[in-house]
């Protein structure tokens, strides 16, 4: 469909590129926020959630964690749905790779959101899970951005 | 589908109004009020915004500006007529949104002078958002064919 030399498909491609730029800023701000509030080490994650008496840091409560993750549950769901559904318009459509990416992204996002509950329940191993899932989620996002930019430019 | 899009645009209009009101009452919509929020004032015993709070604020702003701009662009591209469906308008909306985020970051971390550019971008983004939403609504209500 052509609209005075500017196709509908091209218009959507433009807005998708801008969407990816915004998403990249979102990713940067989430890394800065994680570094500022929690820190990129297992000890720092444990201290943030379970507290530290020596440093006068109180532990987080379930209600406190729920308050933080509540907007993120909706945000993650809608954001990854939007991001992943664009891949359905690429060559990856109905491929096993896309299915793998969809499942991995949502499962990792789930772990990133809910691992703090197990941490405060005493399972300290989940500090590693939280850190690993956060890093993996950021890397997955970067990979999804790359796949989409590649599709916009070459397909 | 038409009714869904009408309500979506109506809700974007509500968001735009609420966002402006919230900003006016909390963050500020003038040079002085934004500077006061970001850097505080010793004379008035107002604390500056902490780095963690600023990052939280900007993180939320990025998400909302991104989702609203993208959703509106998708609807606008669909309903606009030949003349008005153009890359510059969609680009301007997105770029003003991006610029408002970047300039706010620049104002907080580098130079307070960037507040002028932040406010300029912020008002431009809101103006374009209002125009595109109202135009979309007008098309959805009165256009004979879409």
Mean pLDDT of chain A: 89
Alpha carbon gap, first and last residue of chain A:
17 Å
Count the E strands of chain B: 0
Low-confidence regions of chain B = none
User: How much helical structure, as a percent, in the residues of chain A?
Assistant: over 70%
Structure class of chain B = mainly alpha
The backbone outline of chain B, from C-alpha atoms, is elongated
Determine the number of helices of chain A (DSSP H or I, runs of at least 4 residues): 5
Q: What would you say this structure looks like, in words?
A:
Chain A is mostly helical. Chain A has helices spanning 8-37, 42-50, 62-85, 96-120, 125-154, and strands at 2-3, 6-7. Chain A has a two-stranded antiparallel sheet with strand order 1-2. In chain A, strand 1 and strand 2 (6-7) form a beta hairpin. With 146 residues, chain B is mostly helical. Chain B has one domain. Chain B is elongated, with a radius of gyration of 17 Å. The interface between A and B is medium-sized, with 27 and 32 residues.
Features:
heterodimer; A: 155 residues; mainly alpha; two-stranded antiparallel ribbon; 5 helices; disordered N terminus; B: 146 residues; elongated
Topology (SSEs and partners):
The complex is a heterodimer of chains A (155) and B (146).
Chain A: E1 2-3, E2 6-7, H1 8-37, H2 42-50, H3 62-85, H4 96-120, H5 125-154
Antiparallel strand pairs in A: 1-2
Helix pairs in contact in A: 1-5, 2-5, 3-4, 4-5
Chain B: H1 2-27, H2 31-39, H3 51-79, H4 87-109, H5 114-142
Helix pairs in contact in B: 1-5, 3-4, 3-5, 4-5
What would you say about this model in short?
The complex is a heterodimer of chains A (155) and B (146). Chain A is mostly helical and 155 residues long. Chain A has helices spanning 8-37, 42-50, 62-85, 96-120, 125-154; strands spanning 2-3, 6-7.
């Amino acid at each position: 469909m052509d609209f005075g030399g500017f196709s509908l498909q091209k218009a959507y491609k433009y807005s998708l590129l801008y969407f990816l730029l915004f998403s990249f800023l979102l990713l940067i701000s989430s890394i800065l926020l994680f570094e500022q509030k929690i820190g990129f080490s297992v000890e720092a994650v444990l201290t943030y959630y379970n507290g530290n008496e020596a440093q006068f840091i109180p532990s987080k409560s379930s209600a406190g964690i729920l308050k933080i993750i509540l907007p993120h549950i909706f945000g993650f769901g809608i954001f990854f749905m939007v991001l992943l559904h664009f891949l359905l318009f690429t060559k990856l459509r109905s491929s096993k790779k896309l299915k793998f990416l969809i499942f991995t992204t949502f499962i990792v996002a789930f772990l990133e959101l809910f691992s703090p509950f197990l941490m405060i329940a005493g399972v300290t191993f989940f500090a590693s899970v939280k850190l690993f899932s956060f890093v993996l989620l950021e890397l997955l996002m970067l990979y999804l951005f790359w796949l989409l930019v590649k599709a916009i430019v070459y397909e | 589908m038409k009714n869904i899009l009408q309500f979506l645009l109506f809700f974007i209009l509500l968001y735009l109004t609420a966002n402006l009101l919230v900003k006016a009452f909390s963050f500020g919509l003038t040079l002085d009020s934004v500077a006061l929020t970001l850097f505080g004032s010793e004379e008035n015993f107002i604390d500056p915004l902490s780095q963690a709070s600023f990052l939280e604020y900007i993180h939320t702003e990025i998400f909302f500006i991104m989702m609203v701009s993208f959703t509106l662009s998708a609807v606008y591209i669909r309903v606009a007529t030949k003349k008005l469906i153009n890359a510059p308008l969609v680009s301007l909306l997105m770029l003003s949104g991006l610029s408002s985020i970047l300039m706010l970051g620049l104002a907080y971390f580098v130079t307070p002078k960037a507040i002028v550019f932040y406010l300029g971008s912020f008002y431009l983004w809101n103006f374009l958002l209002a125009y595109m939403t109202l135009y979309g609504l007008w098309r959805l209500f009165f256009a004979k064919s879409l």
